[in-house]
Specification:
Structural class: alpha/beta
Strand content: 5-15%
Order of helices and strands: EHHEEEEEHHHHHHEHHH
Mean pLDDT: 85
Number of strands: 7
Length: 269
């Protein structure tokens, strides 16, 4: 007998749809969130209250990690829903974004040129039609999405807020560089996310999505401009400089990931 789990997803890389859903102008999107049991969200945690998926402290404040709760017509607090996030090293994440949107976002410019434009305040005119996505993905994007409040404030306070949310908001912290362990952890905590499930012949292996395009159309005559899998050291240093907050937050996420692995009795693959 088959089962269908009510599911919804929303990604900020589709800024038009994302904005309509968050702002409430797309009622169908809100309704899908209201009925969903599982949600995949690529966006800031601070947008969750728009869908009534908000942390709920049912016990004494901070006595235990807050859970996300789905909206209910009967009660203000329904069954808690726990969150998983999978993070990527900031250098690799930014380089992947650059390779994925070399033409659409960055007009076939080198990453060095892109950062020069950002530093000189030219992102709004150079990276259309969605500069907030194209430029925003290259500077502390991880920190911006992990905090439940504003990015305004002292740098140390913003970083600490993101680290606190990593520790209290998420049930599992996964890392792409340790994807095998992340997969096993998810299956241990949430059995229906395991690759195999007792009593079922179905196998659900993780696949690699969002690969860089085979033709980015940045070469002569619209051909492919070859880009390496990893940035040069000069490019990597530029990424680190422009993602100082993300580097600190990611190191904290690595520590949390190791602690969770140890708690589940997992060894390094």
């Amino acid at each position: 007998m088959g089962y269908t789990v009510p599911y919804n997803n929303l990604h900020e890389c589709n800024p038009t749809m994302y904005s309509r859903c968050v702002n409430g102008t797309d009622d169908s999107c809100r309704k899908r969130f209201a009925s969903a049991a599982v949600v995949s969200l690529c966006g800031p945690l601070r947008d969750l209250p728009a869908f009534s998926w908000t942390p709920s402290l049912q016990e004494e404040e901070y006595a235990q990690p807050p859970a996300i709760v789905a909206p209910s017509e009967e009660t203000e607090v329904d069954h808690p829903v726990h969150a998983i996030t999978v993070l990527r090293h900031p250098v690799e994440r930014v380089w992947s974004m650059y390779r994925f949107k070399t033409k659409f976002c960055y007009k076939c410019k080198s990453l060095t040129e892109v950062y020069e434009i950002i530093d000189n305040g030219g992102a709004e005119t150079e990276f259309g039609p969605y500069p907030q996505v194209c430029a925003g993905q290259l500077e502390n994007h991880m920190t911006r999405n992990l905090i439940q409040h504003s990015m305004n404030g002292l740098v140390d306070d913003v970083v600490q807020q993101a680290i606190d949310d990593i520790k209290s908001f998420f049930t599992i912290i996964g890392l792409t560089e340790d994807m095998n362990s992340t997969r096993i952890m998810a299956g241990e905590v949430f059995p229906w996310l395991a690759e195999t499930y007792e009593g079922s012949s179905t196998t659900c292996a993780l696949t690699h999505a969002n690969k860089s395009p085979q033709n980015n159309r940045c070469g002569p005559g619209g051909t492919h401009m070859e880009l390496p899998s990893h940035p040069s050291e000069e490019e990597a240093e530029l990424i680190r400089i422009h993602n100082e907050l993300d580097m600190k937050v990611y190191h904290a996420a690595e520590r949390q990931h190791r602690l969770q692995k140890a708690a589940l009795g997992l060894e390094d693959p």
